[in-house]
Amino acid sequence: MDKKRVADIVNFLKSLKINSDKFDQILDKNNLEKLRIINEALTHSSMKKEINHEKLEFFGDAVLRLSASEFIENNFQEMNVGKRSELRAQIVSDEWLAKFGKKIHLEQVIIVGPKALGDTFSKDTIIAEITEALIGAFYKCFSSLKEINLWLDQYWLKDSKIILDAPHKFNAKSKLQEWCQSKYINLPIYKIIETSKTHGDQKRFYCELFIEGKLYATSYGQSHKKAEKIAASKAIEAIMKFNIN
Questions:
Q1: Which is the catalytic residue, given 61, 70, 201, 208?
Q2: Segments in the chain forming alpha helices (H)
Q3: Of 79, 83, 132, 213, which is the most exposed, with the fewest CB atoms less than 10 Å away?
Q4: Count of C-beta atoms within a 10 Å radius of residue 24
Q5: Catalytic residue among 86, 132, 147, 228
Q6: 10 Å Cβ neighbour count for 73?
Q7: Which of 120, 136, 165 is the last residue of a domain?
Q8: Per residue in 27-45, pLDDT tens?
């Protein structure tokens, strides 16, 4: 790494404001061994380099789930296992990782191939992957979850409150399925039509959601899963609004 790259990484790490003696050691520009690990996490495979983010992303996936489990154990001790699983799924999701990566301005310091950030969908995927790789890199540097939780818990606390206050918006398909089962009616049917061939188009897929033959909601999404999720959320909102029994 050249001096500019080292300085860019150190400045980025400082911006994270992780209050830890171990973390402070990484901020030493002479600690090249750990800075190389961070640089590996921040180098996307689209650069076609032998050393890239992929191994650390794989490692980071396990670290993230364990760290999130510890966060939930420490902050939601009365929560049952089913609810814990639902909450963890939200705070380790690719969607959450992408939003978090943008929040910490990860895009300013990652190295990607020239065509990799060509559309919104690819951009979100890359940021989610690099965020997960960075989590893996931190664990490799620290050999401890403590610093990971010092960093992530403050964000998870805020996001968990939002998720728990409106669970149907974040796990809409499961909630709608539970509602149908509670009423002893058939599960929702999602009919998807691809309306565009443009990758990343926010209206690429059109979804119609039917329950017992009745059209409950329609929506668009850049993926069929996104379209289904939005439709399910709309259906639950309609059920709540009109107090459908």
A1: 61
A2: 3-15, 21-26, 32-41, 54-75, 81-91, 94-103, 120-142, 146-165, 167-170, 172-182, 224-241
A3: 213
A4: 12
A5: 132
A6: 11
A7: 165
A8: 877 778 999 999 999 999 9
Q: What is the pTM of this model?
A: 0.76
Structural domain for 230, as ranges: 172-241
- State the CATH number of the domain containing residue 32: 1.10.1520.10
Q: Is 132 a catalytic residue?
A: yes
71 pLDDT band, cuts 50/70/90, is very high
d(CA 208, CA 228): 8
Report, as an integer, the average pLDDT of 101-105: 96
Q: Is residue 72 very low, low, confident or very high in pLDDT (cuts 50, 70, 90)?
A: very high
CA distance 10 to 8: 6
174, amino acid identity: S
Query: 61 an active-site residue?
Result: yes
Q: Does pLDDT of 169 surpass 80?
A: no
92: left (phi over 0), alpha (psi -120 to 50) or beta: alpha
Q: How many CB atoms within 10 Å of residue 85?
A: 12
Domain count, the chain: 2
CA-based torsion, 69, 72, 77, 81: positive or negative:
negative
